[in-house]
Design brief:
This protein is mainly alpha-helical. The chain has ten helices and no strands.
């Protein structure tokens, strides 16, 4: 009988180390900001005696940020594709906004509290050097391309500058309202809504109201 080797392979050990680093970095970046956290702190939080572990496994801090984003966005992409299959070629702006919001909140609900990804995203989006990473990773996903196109189709009646402005407003609400709820859950403080599902409903309601608000012409 062949002896079973219970020792993990080098590749398995490397994968496990990478996951520990990703989890530690996401938490520290979410709680303290990306620039305030050193690679040494990430390595220590991940239980790595070697302070060069972060650089060895990921390269630069920007590479580490991208790896954290991709880990979550891949799962969110799967959820969004499922919602897209349900709404088809809808002309209802609420359907497209739900497709924007709910895959994110459903992902956080499945991960379970405490989560750090929403606060991590908010920290990165306020950093001018790292913000393009999240923007590029998000907007280049096939599902997001389709969602943005669907919204454009529903909102062709709006002037171009108004659409651009309201897209910016939507991004701010999506990033920071979800991060605020995540923070409250982590700190065990009251939240306006009882669940991520209900929080998504409130956010979608607000976004629908914003997008369908009248446009004032001051000229």
């Amino acid at each position: 009988m062949n002896k079973v080797d219970d020792n993990p392979s080098r590749a398995e050990r490397a994968h496990a180390t990478r996951e520990l680093i990703l989890t530690a970095a996401e938490r520290l970046f979410a709680e303290h900001g990306v620039l305030a956290v050193s690679n040494r702190q990430v390595s220590e939080a991940a239980g790595q005696g070697n302070n060069t572990a972060v650089g060895y496994h990921f390269g630069t801090k920007a590479d580490l940020v991208r790896a954290i984003a991709r880990k979550h966005l891949a799962q969110i992409e799967e959820r969004r594709q499922q919602v897209l299959a349900q709404i088809g070629d809808s002309t209802d702006v609420r359907d497209w906004l739900s497709c924007l919001v709910r895959p994110v909140t459903d992902h956080l609900a499945e991960v379970g509290s405490p989560t750090w990804f929403a606060r991590f995203g908010a920290q990165v989006m306020t950093d001018p050097t790292l913000r393009p990473i999240i923007v590029d990773e998000t907007q280049s996903s096939p599902s997001m391309v389709r969602v943005l196109a669907g919204l454009e189709t529903c909102l062709r009646h709006l002037p171009d500058d108004v659409r651009a402005e309201r897209f910016d407003m939507s991004r701010q609400l999506l990033v920071h309202m979800i991060a605020e709820r995540e923070r409250a859950l982590a700190e065990n403080t009251p939240t306006p809504r009882a669940s991520w599902h209900d929080a998504a409903t409130g956010l979608v309601d607000a976004l629908v109201g914003m997008w369908l608000a009248p446009v004032t012409n001051d000229s």
